[in-house]
């Protein structure tokens, strides 16, 4: 009911600002989840742009930019900044309350997307723009000319002025690059014409672009981690050259933590794991920025804040969480107990059986004794792998809670286990080890440092943690994967191959992940998928894990569902 009321308010706001009751724009649920102010102001932007500028011309411009090779995610963000500058002064002068909504939306964006702003050049540009608009602060003097160029659009009277500015900012901030760590990003843009000029060409050329190429620049930030469902023709790979890769490693260490592996071991692992479609990829195994970072920085402060938020959710749901932990641990203990029950068997030694003494001198039967056998209850090792990509940001506290329940229950049942989160940034798949096999139960709370960022190359992550699981001395091994069933990594590594690599997303990525799961099962490693995503991605989850996956509708039933599977693996 509340959602419908909010959507009606947003729709009415759009009509009021645009003064056009035929105006119909889809509402982005992500905006509402972030903040009502962000959703309100984005709707104001859409209505104001429809009112003051030729929206049809602009849509054609965006289509052509993408057709000629522009990166949709970068174009989306830069376009939104330019349109804000072009319409804000006009609409704020016309409707006095808009200025207050705009400032609140900018503050909320700075707060909610603090980590994203450190990811790429264009994210950083948005951060500088928001600071410049709110506080007239120039964070980076090198960007001051760009910010002034965008700000000058406040006096724009034609949509072509907006398009021209977007062209200039795009070529500067993306194709040339200005951030310290990403100066080496290269991209072939030969033949890329000015899309603003191309928009004046014939209608016949316009028809070459399908409706699927339409990009809604008001739909919120589109970073490298999207929903994996965009049209294949729109997916483009960023090629990182050698210089970029070297800088990228420094960036990874700064933002995710230093590697816990010595260089020779890291090199061996990469050579062994990064083969086939994962060739030219790299692995980075870390304990996180809070555990091996020499100095405190913005990222450590961010992770501390995220941990506090996750712990707040845990404390708010303490009784429910405790109930799940005790329920799951007791179930596991009972299952292990069945493996340690005394089993009596006849033997050539042990306790003599008087009723069998008649065999002496009469038969060759020497099995005159009984002996108790105890089955070993410590022959299990469990690996918990958690998808820590950007698609998990909206539910990261819930995912952290699920990981904690599993880990603490395994600790209480004294089952050796490791908990690892994974994401992919550039050519690196990062494995954040929250808890190792030999750690005590205090390490379980490290899982509350979990947060979502970047992309996810599930197949490579599963392959890498399985290597660690294989090395454990226990006979029986179980892998539990908490994911949204949506592997997606469209940023390519520096490739030695002449042919362009296929983007890692959609069916291609799902099939690769499913293949890795089958290989583990063929090696007698049991695998359970715990679905932590949107219902529309359930089919992908089924393709990956088959019948062995759990869909958690209600956190209160989490222990029963996961426990049922683990009990089956232990007792069989």
UniProtKB/TrEMBL annotation:
Recorded coiled-coil stretches: none
Gene3D superfamilies, per the entry: von Willebrand factor, type A domain
SUPFAM superfamilies in UniProt: vWA-like
Domain VWFA: 381-572
InterPro entries, A to Z: NorD/CobT, VWF_A, vWFA_dom_sf
PROSITE patterns: VWFA
Protein name per UniProt: VWFA domain-containing protein
Annotated PANTHER family: NORD PROTEIN
